[in-house]
Write a structure and sequence with these properties.
Elements lengths: L9 E5 L9 E4 L2 E5 L8 E5 L1 E7 L11 E5 L4 E3 L6 E6 L11 E7 L4
Length: about 110
């Protein structure tokens, strides 16, 4: 077909600040994970789908299947809705200890 552009699993973006490889990125309603470091003002690729270990709010337990949101101020995942952006679901249970700051997330492909 002549109108096919891409599978949509990745997106090339222009960074609005320096972005580390593996960091979560929210641009408008698009959330992804940087595939490599992206310098401020440079173009780089973010993955929109897949399963990633991402920073999470400390002292917050997760269950498998829990909705996961991105807190763009803290640059961390959370299960708290508030003004945060839905990015996917937890695929691994994690405890709520203060030192448990990583959660495994399956991205939903579009921030809602």
């Amino acid at each position: 077909m002549k109108n096919f552009i891409a599978t949509g699993n990745t997106l090339t973006i222009t960074a609005e600040a320096d972005i580390a490889s593996g960091a979560g990125v929210l641009i408008g309603s698009i959330f992804g994970v940087a595939t490599g470091p992206i310098a401020n003002g440079a173009e780089g690729v973010i993955n929109l789908t897949g399963v990633y270990d991402l920073p999470k709010t400390a002292s917050q337990a997760w269950t498998v299947g829990a909705k996961v949101y991105w807190d763009n101020t803290a640059k961390a995942c959370t299960t708290t809705v508030g003004s945060n952006t839905l990015i996917g679901i937890a695929v691994l249970a994690v405890g709520g200890g203060a030192g448990e700051t990583t959660g495994r997330v399956r991205l939903n492909g579009a921030a809602v």
